[in-house]
Design a protein that fits this description.
This protein is an all-alpha fold and 107 residues long. The protein is 84% helix and 0% strand. The chain is globular.
Length: 107
Amino acid sequence: MSLTALVQNWWMMAIRGVLAVSLGVALTVWPGLTLSNVVVFFGLYAIIDGAWSIAAGLRATTRVLDTWPVVLEGAVSVVLGVTAIVWPFLPRGFIYLLAAWGVITGV
């Protein structure tokens, strides 16, 4: 993705950041939150963030080879989000995978 495309679409990345911070604040202030609720909220967040990431990648340029990493990140996020919602009682290993994906996409 070129620097010009990134500068022109800065607001799309800003919305992803606001969405992530909103999720963190909501999980922090929610009283009596259970692990299954956290997983479902993460699933919803991952689906929305992934769809937004795919849209940002496709909007940035018409050359698919320039944006494939952003679109791939979005697709993986959507798949993880759907998995978290469909399978709310996840094994511990999958929860570690979700946490790792959050750290990787955050970096």
